[in-house]
Design goal:
Blueprint: H1 2-21, H2 30-43, H3 45-63, H4 74-123, H5 126-141, E1 147-150, E2 163-167, E3 175-179, H6 185-241, H7 246-260, E4 264-271, E5 276-283, E6 289-290, E7 293-297, H8 303-310, E8 314-317, H9 324-331, E9 336-344, E10 347-356, H10 366-433, H11 438-465, H12 468-473, H13 475-485, E11 490-495, H14 502-523, E12 528-534, E13 538-545, H15 557-568, E14 572-576, E15 584-590, E16 616-617
Parallel strand pairs: 11-12
Antiparallel strand pairs: 1-3, 2-3, 4-5, 4-10, 5-6, 5-7, 8-9, 9-10, 11-16, 12-13, 13-15, 14-15
Helix pairs in contact: 1-2, 1-3, 2-3, 2-4, 3-4, 4-5, 4-6, 6-7, 6-10, 7-10, 10-11, 10-15, 13-14, 14-15
């Protein structure tokens, strides 16, 4: 009312000012029309009609002659009618504008709410998105509390008195909104109308995204598990292919299994003929390699005993298994166990074990993983057995060859040589007896000389088969003898503080002899260098020259035979021979037998050669 009076007063003052400015063309009541429309738009038709009436009275009283209030003039009725029409039109327009504005505000509110909810679900996982969306709905609709939960979840049960609003128009909505029981009904209707369907679509999309993410995570986990398993198998297979010792392969297998089965104890056991078991390799639940434990008794009700008895994969749940063995295992913290038998050449060799310290079941596919490692273990054992058998066969061949040489030497010395000497003595006796026949003496003398030469040839042959000096004096004097006989000057560097095992000395003798023979025949060298260094663990031989180089071991059988002899003793042979750069032969033989720390004492006489031939040119 006060605003209406102020507006009418201001309009009357404006009209009066216009009257003074243009007395001939005084303004009409149109000035008051602006105020009527403004009041009608802002405060409604009731205040607009009141403003129209007051404006008519003010205009009639102040500016319609004769001066004073007289509302019986037809002009006053026309003005009032015009003001009333303006009020009605202005009210309708104002109502329409307010309705449009309210609709715009409602749509903006809905869009803002849905946008916020959508961003919350996009920026968070499903569970966090539901919590953030609940807080957003509380703020947007002024709720005391709100909980947006998935339909059918453990949290979907409403508390007593709560109102459940289904999100979405379907019979079985994806989500439910739980609001307090004192929430006004129009707020619930507003929630359904504003965000019901869009929020249902958002929740459905979030559910689909969550299922897709879980599927991708599961697929990624499976892929990573397969890659980890293949990597582990490749590492073990590489070790097997490179000829790693069985102990290294066993330790690698249990270590790789521990990487695949975290928080588990992994072990490889071997069944012994006496009914016991040997723990060949074991990693505890922290991944520490445990020492080997031989001579362990086999319990009938343990995994090891079941694998031996059934000869197949065995899984044990110690939490439900009765008996003292299961109770003892449970005290150690083990809940689950699986064992896979290891077969080598069709016989049960041992078992791979995985003992879980977790309550959860052993992961699916454990048997297939263990089976893959099982095959590698069997392959490693078979390769080691074959390698040992091959080495033993080579050693037997070398020993047989040496024995054959000694037998030939003995047969020549004890048989042919003795008979030749006997015949020579008889012929000499005949020569001394027959004095009257000069021709017979000459022939007999010639026969004696021939037999003597044959005897010398046989003696040289016998000494070449197995050098007597090597057996009597040792490796140092024998190598100096070879150097003196060599047509190429030789420089010696010998460090041999004791007698070496006979097969080692024989092998080194043949290496040096063959190398010097090749230098004399093929290299065209002016000098050679021979180095033999022996310590407590191995002996190293190096023979080099300054010849033409380009030596090819494949073109002759001598070096091939030497390599076989050295490999039979656990050593190796290598040759470096660049064109024009001379030839260097490297040989190495171990002096430590498997399972020992040093070479055993040789009962023969020890010969110290350090310094006697070291650095001397022969």
């Amino acid at each position: 009312m006060i605003v209406t009076l102020l507006v009418v007063t201001a309009e009357t003052a404006v009209v009066g000012a216009l009257y003074h400015l243009s007395a001939r063309n005084p303004p009409g009541a149109s000035i008051y029309m602006l105020g009527v429309l403004a009041i009608t738009i802002l405060w409604g038709a009731r205040f607009g009609f009141l403003t129209a009436l007051i404006s008519t009275v003010a205009f009639n009283y102040c500016y319609v002659p004769p001066a004073g209030l007289h509302l019986t003039s037809p002009h006053d009725a026309v003005r009032l009618l015009l003001f009333t029409v303006a009020v009605l039109v202005g009210g309708a327009l104002a109502g329409l504008a307010r309705g449009n504005a309210e609709e715009a505000r409602r749509r903006a509110f809905e869009a803002e709410t849905i946008a916020r909810l959508t961003h919350l679900f996009l920026d968070n996982d499903l569970e966090q998105g539901l919590r953030e969306a609940s807080r957003c709905l509380e703020e947007q609709f002024g709720l005391r509390s709100a909980a947006l939960v998935l339909a059918g979840s453990d949290q979907s049960g409403p508390a007593p008195g709560d109102i459940v609003i289904g999100i979405g128009g379907r019979a079985e909505p994806d989500a439910l909104l739980l609001v307090p029981g004192d929430t006004p009904p129009h707020v619930c209707r507003r929630i359904r109308a504003c965000v019901g369907e869009p929020l249902a679509a958002t929740v459905s999309a979030a559910l689909e995204r969550d299922r897709l993410i879980n599927s991708l995570r599961s697929s990624r986990a499976r892929t990573e598990a397969v890659l980890a398993e293949q990597t582990a198998l490749r590492r073990v297979a590489t070790l097997v292919a490179r000829g790693g010792s069985p102990d290294r392969v066993f330790a690698a297998v249990t270590a790789e299994l521990h990487r695949l089965f975290t928080d588990c104890r992994t072990a490889l056991v071997r069944y012994e003929p006496n009914g016991e078991v040997c723990v060949a390799s074991e990693h505890d639940e922290r991944g520490t390699l445990m020492p080997a434990r031989p001579n362990q008794p086999i319990s009938r009700y343990s995994i090891v005993g079941n694998v031996e008895r059934l000869k197949r994969t065995v899984q044990v749940d110690y939490d439900t298994l009765p008996g003292p063995v299961a109770a003892e295992v449970r005290q150690l913290g083990v809940h689950r166990g699986i064992g896979v038998p290891v077969f080598v050449d069709g016989r049960l060799w041992g078992a791979l074990l995985v003992l879980s310290f977790r309550v959860d079941p052993i992961p699916a596919g454990a048997q297939s993983r263990l089976q893959a490692f099982n095959e590698l273990v069997a392959t490693a054992i078979a390769v080691a057995d074959n390698r040992a058998a091959l080495a033993a066969s080579r050693s037997r061949l070398v020993s047989a060859a040496d024995d054959a040489r000694r037998r030939i030497e003995r047969d020549l010395h004890d048989g042919a040589q003795q008979r030749i000497i006997s015949l020579a003595l008889q012929l000499r006796l005949a020569t001394d007896t027959v004095t009257s026949l000069p021709e017979a003496q000459r022939l007999l003398s010639s026969a004696v000389q021939g037999l003597t030469e044959i005897h010398q040839s046989l003696s040289d042959l016998a000494r070449g088969i197995h050098p007597v000096l090597l057996a009597q004096g040792g490796l140092g004097p024998t190598i100096r003898m070879l150097a003196r006989r060599s047509v190429v000057p030789c420089e010696l560097d010998l460090d041999i503080s004791r007698r070496l095992p006979e097969p080692v000395e024989v092998a080194i003798y043949y290496v040096v002899a063959e190398a010097l023979t090749n230098i004399a025949k093929h290299s065209g060298a002016s000098f050679a260098c021979i180095s033999v260094l022996a310590d407590d663990r191995c002996v190293r031989v190096r023979v080099s020259d300054d010849g033409a180089g380009s030596a090819d071991p494949a073109r002759g059988t001598g070096l091939v035979g030497l390599r076989d002899r050295l490999e039979a003793l656990g050593g190796g042979l290598s040759i470096t021979s660049p064109p024009g750069g001379g030839t260097t032969l490297h040989a190495e033989l171990p002096l430590v037998r498997p399972g020992t720390t040093s070479v055993p004492d040789d009962p023969r006489e020890r010969v110290a050669t350090r310094g006697e031939g070291s650095g001397n040119r022969v």
